[in-house]
Design a protein that fits this description.
Length: 95
């Protein structure tokens, strides 16, 4: 199987914050994809046992990637398009 690597970074980029850290993203990219590219894997923790959860299905079905976006909880990072100056935080618990 051949693996292709993006050798040239896109000229356009936007920034948003995740837990008070600035993250760069490509316009049109999902919040989840941008966070994975930045090396952030844990997007939420479970309510009672505080176990980490990350992207699982990547298509909005499983709800493991729930985050708080601009103060609104229960947003699926995998299907939400990243916007400039968006404020994203780790969510505690789920929907």
């Amino acid at each position: 199987m051949q693996v292709l690597t993006l050798l040239v970074k896109p000229s356009a980029s936007i920034t948003f914050t995740f837990n008070d850290l600035e993250v760069s993203a490509i316009p049109g990219q999902s919040v989840g994809a941008a966070l994975l590219a930045a090396g952030d894997r844990v997007l939420r923790v479970t309510r009672f046992e505080k176990k980490p959860r990350a992207m699982f299905c990547g298509i909005g079905v499983c709800f493991d990637c729930l985050v708080v976006i601009d103060g609104a909880p229960n947003q699926r990072a995998c299907i939400t398009e990243v916007k400039a100056k968006m404020v994203v935080r780790t969510q505690v618990g789920g929907a």
